[in-house]
Amino acid sequence: MLQQGQQFPLTIKRLGINGEGVGYFKKQVVFVPGALPGEEVVVQAMNVYPTYAEGKIVRIRKRSPHRVKPLCPVYDKCGGCQLQHLDYNAQLEAKRDIVIQALERHSRFNVEELHIRPTIGMDDPWHYRNKSQFQVGVKKGRVIAGLYSMNSHELIDIDRCFIQHDATNRVTTVVKTILQDLRIPIYHERKKTGVVRTIVARVGFFTGDVQLVIVTATKELPRKELFVAEVKRRLPEVKSIAQNINGQKTSLIFGDETIVLAGEPYIQEVLGDLSFELSARAFFQLNPIQTIKLYDEVKKAAALTKNERVVDAYCGVGTIGLWLAREAKEVRGMDTIPEAIDDARQNAERHGLTNVTYAVGKAEVLLPKWVKEGWKPDVIVVDPPRTGCDNALLKTILQVKPKTVVYVSCNPSSLARDIDTLAKQYRVEYIQPFDHFPHTAHVESVAKLVRK
């Protein structure tokens, strides 16, 4: 049994689902952040548990040919990216492997028999994120903004994040300076004093519109008029300035109340031939370039001929359903968040799509009701949260028996578990992994399931 602090040699076999190296010491599994498959490393045991251990690299005896120098100067401290030290083509292979591992661990499929395609990556895997949410703090009298370091409560100041669009980097940097110049009090988490907690910046990739949301602990924002005037002067590209109030002790960024301080209440973004209005708190895909590829894959998998009834479960603001609407006979979407459904209805109306309807509620409640009324879907698209589909929804799909299920996943483990449940009646035609978040361990997938 390993002891805490013990040093030992380890050969790394693969990458784990969080991007860490995985090796075995006397049959005990050891997770080592920063280590790569094929490397021989000397590791120090940091945490030892009954079934596994966590270690850190002391030195690398044999380096992977795929190891590269990370672009970001705070890469090892920040923790926002996990794979910048691995060359990009190897990242794409590793992400396909993460999907395979999840299927081996959480399903009864013979993975050899499944068609798991190579990961679809990006031509340029940098500056792809359209939104940043950086916590604000003070260090040595200077206003800083960034992310909390891995496993600690130290705020890492990020001057330029290499996976963020340059527009959001610029807004964050300038706003830090404005807060400093105007001496606006910064929130102190431990003492619960001060005002400004978070700087949120978002850009429309295809419109150039920029949105700034300043999250405050109190409704009162000192020198508010001056702050707005300075943002307008120094950042003329910002179309929408809002304040969100979050006085709660919580890890959630946003509170319930948002006030528009200047400009429009939302910015515009375009995906393909669809346009969207994004208010301060509206959810929107973080990588618009890959989102278009992903939605096109959903369209291909659905294989619509203008005769099908389609259900868009977990529809959010309706993006997937609207993407499919022109090829479908009818689309019905549902979500439990009323604001998302309001946005979805407005989006459908704005695009003149009359064959789309949206309802507030759970798919497992609404679907049986519609079937009873004589409306049965041919295709069901699910795009669930990380936890996967609700069990009641999976049961409902097996009862309703659509011809095709298209499963959009942001978590290979819950994807594996859910399609294993559906395998009673459905054959997995293929799984297509996507790299939405280069240099991180995240992997998205589209799985096409056809009724046996």
TrEMBL record:
InterPro entries: MeTrfase_TrmA_AS, MeTrfase_TrmA_CS, NA-bd_OB-fold, SAM-dependent_MTases_sf, TRAM_dom, U5_MeTrfase_fam. Keywords: 4Fe-4S, Iron, Iron-sulfur, Metal-binding, Methyltransferase, S-adenosyl-L-methionine, Transferase. It comes from Anoxybacillus mongoliensis. This is tRNA (Uracil-5-)-methyltransferase/23S rRNA (Uracil1939-C5)-methyltransferase. The active site is at C410, C410 (nucleophile). Residues 1-59 form the TRAM domain. It comes from the Bacteria. GO terms for molecular function: 4 iron, 4 sulfur cluster binding; rRNA (uridine-C5-)-methyltransferase activity; tRNA (uracil(54)-C5)-methyltransferase activity, S-adenosyl methionine-dependent. The keyword DNA-binding does not apply.
